[in-house]
Design goal:
The chain has about 900 residues and is α+β, with helices and mostly antiparallel strands. The strands form 7 sheets. The protein has an 8-stranded antiparallel β-barrel with strand order 1-2-4-7-8-11-12-13. The chain has an 8-stranded antiparallel β-sheet with strand order 18-17-20-21-14-15-16-19, covered by helices on one side. A hairpin with a 5-residue loop joins strand 7 and strand 8. The longest helix is centred in the middle third of the chain and has 27 residues.
Length: about 900
C-alpha cells in the first residue's frame, strides 16, 4: 500500500540540508592545488568553496508539523482535538547525531542519499509517539520547480523509503496511530519526502541559508512491496509544454480511490512560494489514439493542499470506471472543453524501476558486486515475463552487467553487476563512476531508469603504512574539503590524528548507514580504510616516515624542497615591510637568512636531480599558502603567516621554524661542528674538488647515529641522509645528468653540485648547520657574525636587540652591539595579505594579481632552471627583483578606503580556474 493510500499521516515544514560544497569541485581534490580560499563561501565572481563550504553534511528537521491524518476510510482530520497526532511535530533523534546527506561522487551529484536519519513523531504536547530508522535512499525526480531572479533553476526532488526498528509509545490516545500500526507489516512504515526551495545564497546572503521546504507522508508498508518507490502507475509529463512533472499514481480498487501524488509535479511561483494555479485537474483514460476521456475530478486541490495533504490528490471511481482503466492508459487532463493531456502513462502502460539505485563497489573483494531488484508494472499490476535491457555503456567501463533480464511471475527481476579495477583514471579522486540504464527490451533507446555506481580503485596496502606516504595524503584531502572538521581536529596533523585515534578508528569502522560513519561522504574505499586502521593500530606512535625505495627518497626530497620554499615568502614579507633606510641592521640579518634559504632550496634541487628525480617548482605542484603549515609534516603545530616585521612575529614564527634540535648521538646531546670546512675544497661553482676521507666517514657516521625529535626539519634531513647512505650502492643511486646541476658562485655559502654520496651529504649537512647550528666565531672577533650563525641565533639577536658575543668564559650571550627595532620604521601592513579578499575589480586586487603573476613566473623560471637549464638562473634573479618592486607598490596602497593599514604581497599562485 505504501504512503500513497489510507491510513496516512501528512507533514510539512522546514528542513535543513547543511551539506558541504567544496568537494563539489573536482579540481579541489588535488592537495597540491588546494588553496585556503576554497574554504570560503563564494563571493561572485569568485567561486571559492561554492555556497556552503563549511557544511557538516547534515540533514535536519528544523520545524516540521503534522498537518493532517487520513483514516482508513479516507476521512481527513486537520485538528488535534480529533487526534493528538495532528499539530504534533516530526523531529530528529535526541540520542545520536543528525543524519547525513551524501553525494555519490563529484561527477554525479544528482543522486544524493540520506544516511543515518532517525526521525521521531511527537504529539501536540511534545510526547514521543514513534521513532524509526530511515533506510538510506537517494533523491529521485529532480526537476526545476521555480526560476530564480538570476534565471537559475530552483530544484525539487523526492525521497521515498521505509522506517525500520520502530519504537512505538502508548498509542491509546491516538486512533490514527492505532490504525496505522495495525495495518503495517514487517515492522516497517512507508515514508515519502518532497524537498524544494533550499536556500543556497548565491543571489544574496539570507539568514535561512541551507534551509528549505519539505512536505511528506507516512503510511503502512505491506510485505512484498519495494521499499524505495511505489510500484504503481507512472504518470509521465506529456510533452514539453505541460506544466506538470511526472507523478506516481496508485489505484485502490477496494475503495474505488485513485491516488495521484502531485507533491513534486506543480511548479512554484517562486523559491519556497505558493504553487502555481494549474486550474481544475481531472483523471482521464486514453483511448487507442491517445484521446482522453475524463473520468472524475482530482479533489482536495485547494490553495492549502500542498502542506495539508502533502500534495496528494484523489479521484473516486465506480466499478465500471475501475474496469475501464484496468488495461488502459491513465492520464491527468485540464478542464478545457477539449481537454489537454498534462500527464499520462506511456503507450504500453508500463513502468520499470529499481528498488535501490546507488551503489559503491570495491573490486577484488567481497564488495566487488552489487545487486538490486527491478520491478515492472503494466497498468499498475506486476508485469510478468517482461524482457528488460541493461546497458553499462561502451567498454571499457568499470562495471559489468548482463545485457538482459526477465521479470518473474511477480514482475521482478534480480539484477547483479560487478566492479573491476578502474586503474585510478582520475588520480586525485578514487575510482570512477558508471551508469547502468535499464528498461523494456523493445524500447532500448528509452530507459525507464539508471543505476548509479561508483567503483573504487583496487588498493594494495603496504606492509608498513606510514603517515607521510600513505595516510596523510588521504586525510589532508578531507581536512581541505571539510574545513568544519578543523573545529574539532585537523586531519592533516599527525599529532591531532594520534590524539583522537580511538574515535577516528571507531567512526571509520562504523556501518555505512550510521550517522557516525566517517568520512561523511562515504567515499573512502574499504582497502584504504583498512590500511588507515592498521596504521592507527600500529602502536602509540604510528610510523611517520620510512624511506624504503629510491622513488620514495625522491618524493621526500621534493617535500624538503617545498619546506625551504615555504620559508622564503614569510621572511621576505617581513623584510619588505621595513621602510627604506630604517631598521637597517635587522634588515641585513633577515636578508642574509632569505639568501641562505634560497640556497637551501637550490641545494635540495641539486640533490634531487642527482638521484634521478625532477624537482617540481610551482604549478601543477604544491605552492605553499599562508596562513598554513609547512610541507612534509614538519613542525605540524606551527602556523606560518605573512606578517609585517615585529619582534613577536620573529619570535613566534621565525625562531620556531629555525629552533635548534640538537640530536642525540650515542646517548648524548650533540652540539658543534661535524665537518671542518677546511676538510673540503670546491671550485667557485660548487664542484667538490677534494674531500678528506676521514672527515667524510665521520659525517656519514654522524648521520647514521644522530637521532632527532620527529617532525623537525633536522629530523627530515637526517632521514634523507640515511636513505642516501642506504641506497648509494656504490654510486648507482646518483643516476642524474650532471648537466642539470646548478651552480651559484654568489651564494652565501657553497651551493654544492651533487654527483655522489659525499657531495650530497655535504649539501644536506650545510642546510642543517645553517638553519640551527651552534654559534661560531670563525674570524676571532668575539662576535657571531651572520655568516657564522645559524638562522635561529640571527633571529634571536633581533628579538634580544643585541648581537651575540662570546664571553670571557667562552660562553655566548646577547651582549654585543645593539640591534635596535623601530616599530615606526615598518609599514602598517595587514596580516596575511590575500588577493582574493580584495574586492573584484578594485585597484588593490589588480595590483595584487600582478604581484602574484610575477611570483608565479618566478616559480616557473626556477622550475626551468632546475629542469635542465641552469644557465637561465640570472633570469630568475630579475623576476625576484620584479616581485619585490611590485610588493613595495602594494605596501603604499591603503588596504581599504580610509584604512590605516596597507596591502602587502600575497605570494599566491593559483592552480585552479573555475571561471572566476
Amino acid at each position: 500500500m505504501s504512503y500513497l493510500g489510507y491510513p496516512r499521516l501528512n507533514f510539512a515544514g522546514t528542513i535543513q540540508t547543511d551539506v558541504a560544497t567544496a568537494n563539489n569541485a573536482a579540481p579541489y581534490f588535488d592537495n597540491n592545488l588546494f588553496e585556503p580560499r576554497f574554504q570560503w563561501r563564494m563571493n561572485l565572481p569568485d567561486v571559492n568553496g561554492l555556497w556552503n563550504p563549511r557544511g557538516p553534511g547534515t540533514v535536519r528537521l528544523a520545524d516540521v508539523s503534522v498537518t493532517s491524518v487520513c483514516f482508513p476510510d479516507g476521512r481527513q482530520v486537520t485538528s488535534g482535538r480529533e487526534d493528538p497526532v495532528v499539530g504534533g511535530r516530526l523531529v530528529d533523534d535526541d540520542l545520536r547525531t543528525n543524519g547525513k546527506m551524501v553525494d555519490l561522487d563529484p561527477s554525479n551529484q544528482m543522486v544524493p542519499e540520506i544516511y543515518g536519519w532517525r526521525p521521531r513523531l511527537l504529539d501536540k504536547d511534545g510526547r514521543e509517539l514513534l521513532r524509526g530508522d530511515f533506510l538510506p535512499s537517494a533523491v529521485e525526480d529532480l526537476w526545476p520547480r521555480a526560476t530564480l531572479p538570476s534565471g537559475r533553476p530552483d530544484m525539487a526532488g523526492t525521497y521515498q523509503s521505509v522506517l525500520s526498528g520502530l519504537e512505538w509509545a502508548e498509542t491509546g490516545g491516538s486512533p490514527f496511530l492505532q490504525a496505522l500500526r495495525a495495518r503495517s507489516e514487517k515492522g516497517l512504515l512507508s515514508v515519502k519526502l518532497t524537498m524544494d526551495a533550499v536556500e543556497d545564497g548565491v543571489e544574496h546572503w539570507p539568514d535561512n541559508i541551507t534551509f528549505g521546504r519539505v512536505v511528506g507522508s507516512i503510511g503502512p508498508y505491506y510485505a512484498g512491496e519495494p521499499k524505495r518507490f511505489l510500484a504503481g502507475r507512472r504518470l509521465r509529463k506529456a510533452g514539453a509544454k505541460s506544466p506538470l512533472n511526472h507523478a506516481p499514481c496508485r489505484v485502490d480498487e477496494a475503495s474505488g480511490t485513485v491516488f495521484v501524488d502531485l507533491a513534486n509535479s506543480i511548479r512554484a511561483t517562486k523559491r519556497g512560494g505558493p504553487l502555481e494555479d494549474v486550474g481544475t485537474l481531472r483523471l482521464a483514460v486514453l483511448d487507442a489514439d491517445g484521446k482522453p476521456k475524463p473520468l472524475a475530478p482530482l479533489t482536495g486541490m485547494d490553495s492549502g493542499f500542498y502542506e495539508r495533504s502533502a500534495g496528494i490528490a484523489t479521484a473516486r471511481l465506480d466499478r465500471e470506471r475501475l474496469r475501464l482503466i484496468a488495461d488502459r492508459r491513465l492520464a491527468v487532463v485540464d478542464d478545457a472543453k477539449d481537454p489537454g493531456v498534462l500527464l499520462a502513462e506511456n503507450g504500453e502502460g508500463t513502468w520499470v524501476h529499481a528498488d535501490g539505485f546507488v551503489f559503491r563497489l570495491y573490486p577484488e573483494s567481497s564488495e566487488a558486486t552489487g545487486s538490486t531488484t527491478l520491478y515492472a508494472t503494466r497498468f499498475g499490476k506486476p508485469a510478468a515475463g517482461l524482457r528488460l535491457f541493461l546497458n553499462a555503456g561502451k567498454p571499457p567501463q568499470p562495471v559489468s552487467v548482463a545485457a538482459e533480464a526477465v521479470t518473474d511471475a511477480k514482475g521482478r527481476a534480480k539484477v547483479g553487476f560487478t566492479g573491476t579495477d578502474p586503474g585510478n583514471p582520475r588520480k586525485v579522486m578514487d575510482g570512477a563512476t558508471a551508469q547502468i540504464s535499464y528498461g523494456p527490451l523493445h524500447r532500448p533507446g528509452e530507459p525507464d531508469g539508471t543505476l548509479s555506481v561508483r567503483v573504487f580503485d583496487a588498493y594494495r596496502a603496504p606492509a608498513k603504512p606510514t603517515w607521510m606516504r600513505d595516510v596523510r595524503p588521504i586525510f589532508q584531502q578531507y581536512a581541505n574539503l571539510f574545513p568544519v572538521m578543523r573545529d574539532v581536529l585537523d586531519l592533516g596533523n599527525y599529532r591531532h590524528v594520534v590524539r583522537h585515534r580511538t574515535y577516528i578508528r571507531r567512526t571509520l569502522l562504523a556501518p555505512r548507514d550510521s550517522p557516525n560513519h566517517m568520512p561523511v561522504t562515504r567515499d573512502l574505499s574499504p582497502g584504504k580504510r583498512d590500511m588507515i586502521v592498521s596504521w592507527l593500530d600500529a602502536g602509540p606512535e604510528p610510523l611517520i616516515l620510512d624511506i624504503t625505495t629510491p622513488d620514495e627518497l625522491r618524493d621526500v626530497l621534493q617535500q624538503a624542497m617545498l619546506v625551504e620554499l615555504a620559508t622564503i615568502p614569510p621572511y621576505l614579507t617581513a623584510l619588505l615591510s621595513i621602510k627604506p633606510d630604517r631598521n637597517v641592521k635587522i634588515g641585513k640579518l633577515i636578508r642574509a637568512v632569505v639568501l641562505e634559504e634560497m640556497q637551501h632550496m637550490a641545494q635540495v634541487c641539486n640533490v634531487l636531480n642527482a638521484v634521478g628525480g625532477k624537482p617540481q617548482i610551482g604549478r601543477p605542484g604544491l605552492v605553499p599558502t599562508y596562513p598554513g603549515k609547512l610541507p612534509a609534516s614538519v613542525l605540524p603545530d606551527l602556523e606560518v603567516r605573512l606578517r609585517k616585521l615585529s619582534l613577536e612575529h620573529v619570535k613566534d614564527v621565525f625562531m620556531a621554524i629555525e629552533q635548534p634540535q640538537h640530536p642525540m648521538v650515542d646517548g648524548k646531546p650533540f652540539k658543534g661542528h661535524v665537518v671542518d670546512p677546511k676538510s673540503v675544497r670546491t671550485d667557485r661553482h660548487g664542484k667538490v674538488l677534494a674531500a678528506d676521507g676521514a672527515a667524510m666517514a665521520k659525517l656519514e657516521g654522524w648521520f647514521t647515529r644522530a637521532e632527532y625529535e620527529p617532525q623537525t626539519i633536522g629530523w627530515l634531513y637526517n632521514r634523507i641522509a640515511r636513505a642516501i647512505i642506504r641506497f648509494d650502492d656504490g654510486g648507482k643511486l646518483f643516476s642524474g645528468d650532471p648537466a642539470r646541476q646548478v651552480g651559484w658562485p654568489d651564494a652565501p655559502k657553497t651551493l654544492y653540485k651533487v654527483t655522489d654520496k659525499e657531495s650530497a651529504l655535504l649539501g644536506i649537512y650545510q642546510i642543517i648547520e645553517q638553519g640551527e647550528g651552534s654559534p661560531h666565531d670563525l674570524n676571532d672577533d668575539g662576535l657571531g657574525d651572520p655568516g657564522e650563525l645559524g638562522h635561529y641565533y640571527m633571529f634571536k639577536e633581533i628579538v634580544e636587540g643585541r648581537q651575540l658575543k662570546r664571553k670571557a668564559d667562552g660562553s655566548w650571550g646577547y651582549e654585543g652591539p645593539e640591534i635596535p627595532f623601530d616599530p615606526d620604521g615598518v609599514y602598517p601592513m595587514v596580516d596575511d595579505p590575500d588577493t582574493y579578499r580584495l574586492p573584484a575589480g578594485s585597484a588593490g586586487r589588480r595590483d595584487s594579481l600582478r604581484c602574484d603573476t610575477s611570483y608565479t613566473n618566478l616559480l616557473k623560471g626556477l622550475h626551468r632552471v632546475f629542469d635542465g637549464h641552469p644557465a637561465e638562473l640570472d633570469n630568475t634573479v630579475g623576476l625576484m627583483f620584479q616581485v619585490q618592486v611590485e610588493a613595495r607598490k602594494l605596501l603604499d596602497m591603503p588596504s581599504a578606503e580610509g584604512a590605516r593599514t596597507v596591502l602587502g604581497p600575497a605570494f599566491q599562485s593559483p592552480g585552479v580556474d573555475l571561471g572566476q
